[in-house]
Amino acid sequence: MEQLYRENAKIVYHYIMSLCHDPVLAEDLTQETFLRAFQSLERFNGSCKLSTWLCQIAKHLYYQHLAKNGREIPMQPHEDLPSNRPLPENTVLNRLELLHVLKEMQKLPSQMREVIYLRTTADLSFREIGEILGQSENWARVNFYRGKKLLADATQTAKKEEPI
User: Fold this and answer.
1) Cβ(8)–Cβ(50) under 8 Å?
2) Which residue of 26, 27, 40, 111 is most buried, as measured by CB atoms within 10 A?
3) Crossing angle of helices 2-20/50-69, nearest 10°?
């Protein structure tokens, strides 16, 4: 069980983090995921990767958490993303752009948003994303690229509207 945890905890944590943007909740749900997986290991039939099965358990636990505590999903992550540029002006501009992208992501359909989070934060393949969301690999790929294009278009529109 320890080896199972070592090999998959990071994937599960990043997946939950992509959904909730709360490190404490993500840690709690990651632990709960492995507890539930251990309790129902005999039900794992090998039809998908173990990490996919664990992410499915994590997703259900997250949805249960939402049902118990209200369905409000945070608009932005709690942790600041590090900036490669030391200048404060660049840091502020990067933060504003990130906020804009996160706000635009909240406007996307929920499954498209999930695909983007899984691909960018958990670094999962399109096949794995399709398995987690109960869809095909091609469906995951199409939703990722469509979502990415929508975000790029929204960002370009916002830049054109900014005063010079």
Assistant:
1) yes
2) 26
3) 50
The pLDDT tens digits for 12-62 are 898 888 888 889 999 999 999 998 888 888 787 877 788 888 888 998 899
Distances (CA, A) of 118 to 11, 32, 112: 9, 20, 10
* CB neighbour class for 131 (10 Å; exposed up to 12, middle 13-18, buried from 19): buried
Q: Are 74 and 20 contacting, i.e. CB atoms less than 8 angstroms apart?
A: yes
Contact 99, 81 (CB under 8 A): no
Supply the angle between the helices 23-39 and 2-20 in degrees, to the nearest 10: 140
Distances in Å between the Cα of 145 and the Cα atoms of 98, 132, 139, 149, 150 are 19, 18, 10, 6, 9
